[in-house]
Amino acid sequence: MIDDILSEARQKMKSTLSVFEHDLQGMRSGRASPSLVERLRVEYYGQETELRQLATISTPEPMQILIRPYDKGAVKSIEKAIRASDLSINPQTDGDAIRLNMPPLTRERRQDLVKLLNKRIEEGRITIRNIRRSCNDDIRDFEKEKMISEDDAKRGQEEIQKVTDKFIGDIEEMGKQKEKEILEV
């Protein structure tokens, strides 16, 4: 029973970590990256669709993203979605391709990104702790129902704490790496 709870905790924490990692990829650092725009939601024939499903996205130059829609009719919708996003980049269209020239990051913008990064790190920690609390509640319930002994419950809670510490450490390490990347001039 405790093994099941631990397994479920690891699985949920892993998925939290992968969501966090994907969030970090979408945060802008000193160079252009397709991950900045690939999850951008575009209104396409009345449906919200991710940009990566509508176009090929590449970086022909370090500070430029090139978007080539599969359907030329989607160009206007993609432009509109980029303008409406929080990227604060003006798309330039040449025929059937859209170019995004990334302006260099100012010191203020970098500091804002670090603040946003720290907020995301804290959200990740909170999510991991909520998973821990839920698992500990399950263990206490099993103990109350006499399905496991007090010693097993204590051992299970200690194991869950170890897993929690590991995943929070992973989130903090990834955050440090991203902060270093953002502050790099």
Overall description:
There is one protein chain. The protein is of the alpha+beta class. It folds into two domains: 2-26 and 106-183, Topoisomerase I, Chain A, domain 4 (Orthogonal Bundle), CATH 1.10.132; 34-101, 2-Layer Sandwich (Gyrase A, domain 2), CATH 3.30.1360.40. It has four helices and six strands; from the N terminus they run αββββαββαα. Strands 3-4-6-5 form a four-stranded antiparallel sheet, covered by helices on one side. A two-stranded antiparallel ribbon has the order 1-2. Helix 1 (2-26) runs antiparallel to helix 3 and helix 3 runs antiparallel to helix 4 (150-183). The protein is elongated. It starts with a helix and ends with a helix.
- What Rg do the Cα atoms give? 22 Å
- Beta-strand level of the residues, as a percent range? 15-25%
Give, in order, the helices and strands.
HEEEEHEEHH
Known CATH architecture of the largest domain: Orthogonal Bundle
Report the biggest beta sheet as strand number plus sense, adding barrel if it closes: 4 strands, antiparallel
Task: State the CATH superfamily name of the largest domain.
Answer: Ribosome-recycling factor
Question: Share of helix among residues?
Answer: 55-70%
SS content category:
alpha+beta
> Average pLDDT across residues?
89
Count of separate DSSP helical elements: 4
CATH topology (fold) name of the largest domain: Topoisomerase I, Chain A, domain 4
> What is the β-strand count?
6
- Estimate nothing, just give the exact number of structural domains: 2
Distance between the termini: 51 Å
